[in-house]
From TrEMBL:
Organism: Methylobacterium terricola
Compositional bias (Basic and acidic residues): 132-149
Domain of life: Bacteria
Transmembrane segments: 46-63, 75-93
InterPro entries for this protein: DUF983
Segments for region (Disordered): 122-149
Protein name according to UniProt: DUF983 domain-containing protein
Keyword list, A-Z: Membrane, Transmembrane, Transmembrane helix
Length: 149
């Protein structure tokens, strides 16, 4: 959750210090603070779908409630709701993309796993040596922390 929150705030999911975006939706190739590489992320399609889902439901509810409770002019409805949807979408798109990059980092997806195993510490609560225990066996194949497979 920490890596997702850091990404949502436009921060490096690893250290929380460096900026995640260079431009509006362009993820930096790496973190200027810790050097964590971001070039292998795959957060291109999911953020817009999530934003459309959330904004569509909120604006749709607003339209329905306004129509049922208030008698506003048609021109107001046709200018206010699309403008609100556009502004809300633009405001949520970058934080949502950052959260998806943070989620990929936290789950070790799309190249983040190899970097994290190579020595970068986690932001999501895994042990410092970046191994995970499943059914009493380490996932990296080592028996103890000192020997390699």
């Amino acid at each position: 959750m920490l890596a997702i929150w850091r990404g949502f705030r436009n921060r490096c999911p690893h250290c929380g210090e460096g900026r995640l975006f260079g431009r509006f939706l362009k993820v930096r190739p790496d973190c200027e603070a810790c050097g964590m590489e971001f070039h292998h992320h795959r957060a291109d399609d999911l953020p817009p779908y999530l934003v459309i889902f959330v904004v569509g439901h909120v604006v749709g509810l607003g339209v329905l409630e306004t129509e049922m409770r208030l008698d506003l002019p048609f021109w107001f409805q046709m200018t206010f709701w699309p403008a609100l949807a556009l502004v809300a979408s633009l405001l949520l798109l970058q934080p949502t993309k950052g959260a998806v990059v943070g989620l990929q980092y936290a789950l070790g997806m799309h190249g983040f796993a190899a970097i994290r195993r190579a020595g970068a510490g986690p932001a999501s609560g895994l042990p410092e040596d970046e191994t995970e225990m499943r059914h009493g066996v380490r996932t990296d194949g080592r028996n103890d922390g000192s020997s390699r497979p």
